[in-house]
Amino acid sequence: MRDYSLREYLGMDEVVGPIFFIRNIHNVGYNELVEIVDEEGKARMGITLEVGKGFAVVQVLGGTSGISLKNCKVRFREEPLMIGACEEVLGRVFDGLGNPLDGMPKPVYEELIDVNGMAINPTSRDYPKNIIETGLSAIDVMNTLVRGQKLPIFSGSGLPHDLIATQICRQARVKNESFCVIFAAMGVKYDTARFFIKSFEESGVLERVAIFLSLADSPSIERLQTPRLALACAEFLAFKKNMHVLVIMTDMSNYCEALRELSTVRGEIPARKGYPGYLYSDLASLYERAGMIKGINGSITQLPILTMPNDDITHPIPDLTGYITEGQIVLEREMYARGIYPPIAGLPSLSRLMKDNIGEGLTRSDHPALASQLFACYAHVKDIRALASIIGEEELTPLDHLYLKFGDEFEKKFLSQGYHERRTLEEGLDLGWEIISLLPESELVRIKDQELKKYYKKRNESKPGRD
Fold first, then answer.
1. Among candidate residues 214, 246, 233, 244, the one with its CA nearest the CA of residue 84
2. What are the C-alpha distances in Å from 462 to residues 398, 440, 456, 458, 459?
3. Euclidean distance between the first and final Cα of the chain, in Å?
4. Comparing 53-67, 185-199, 346-360, which segment has the lowest mean pLDDT?
5. What number does CATH give the domain 8-79?
6. If you average pLDDT over residues 170-188, what whole number do you get?
7. Cα dihedral value 40, 45, 46, 52, nearest 10
8. What is the pLDDT of residue 3?
9. 83-356 in CATH: which number?
10. How confident is the model over 130-147, as pLDDT tens digits?
11. Fewest C-beta atoms under 10 Å: which of 174, 369, 407, 463?
């Protein structure tokens, strides 16, 4: 019989992969921290996944390899997994469990924070407002990122989402405010992790970036904790230090794969494509930690990145992510094959909070109409290209040829942008006007006359009308 007066027990009942089952214990809490000490006296940490009357299911963060089933000691700490937080985490590199990877000692933490976070009272939430300039015109002009928003990037295997992530880290700006970036990478290869760190060091932005890396050879359980640790640090910096924090999480598909693996080990009934039925609520527990709180100047903005298996946007991971978040940035493989970087697709991408945060007094008075007109004209270009593939370009009208020229210029000059090129919002808007001016004024039906008179760049060439 076990001694119920103690919070330490000898032995486990069953071990399955990184999970063990223990029975005949006192009633413990969900997400409670557990310490497992092997025969050599080395301790590993675990977290309760499932609890009931007199039993618990525990996931071991370091894996169960080498642990004796009968001779190990299990201690229940009666507290959740905590992470130390302070401003000194900026400029540092940590592993997926918050241990330093840069060879420097742990910073002196100001306080310990529950990695699961504290739910924001819905009545205390403030509506996301004011934009974050990423330096990429395809986002700043067409799919504006707003402080407090969660705007995912839908990518695919082999597409340059890692480059885009580091470019946004280097270039993102908030005017006249304290700003920092929390970068969480899950299941990445060693060379990719080195690329992230080297990119931030060489560009000189590492001092305002905190990096959490869970490598591909780390236990898959670690991937489930990495974004939670990163978000806990972000909450401290945003709501205690009044900073505007951009949290970039890549790759959320690796996170979901770890969740599916854990669910399979636990013997749970799978849902769509083998993922657990609680995938939606689990993702929501991460994404909903973005936002702003009334009376607090800081904010948390999320830019999660995920790779769509087989480029399938209806796959459960992007599908559920789209339900929770406020829009999406979609990368297009066909554009990337034509040498366009960043290959941000113009039509399936959108930012649902953009309309309330651009225009007079926010960005520029012409921004809403110009973005809408660029979107409409580019959509028409897609229709004309489809028609040309059937009847041939020689059968198109002169106006259709102008649209095709506009489409090429829009992709090559506006959407396409060098990895080291940062455009301000003003420069992006001016470039948009330069390209939209390839079309006759009569086609720009979404723009008011006063805006056309002010920004439209008249051309000497003839302006063909519709046939």
1. 233
2. 10, 9, 15, 11, 8
3. 91
4. 53-67
5. 2.40.10.170
6. 90
7. 80
8. 44
9. 3.40.50.12240
10. 999 999 999 999 999 999
11. 463
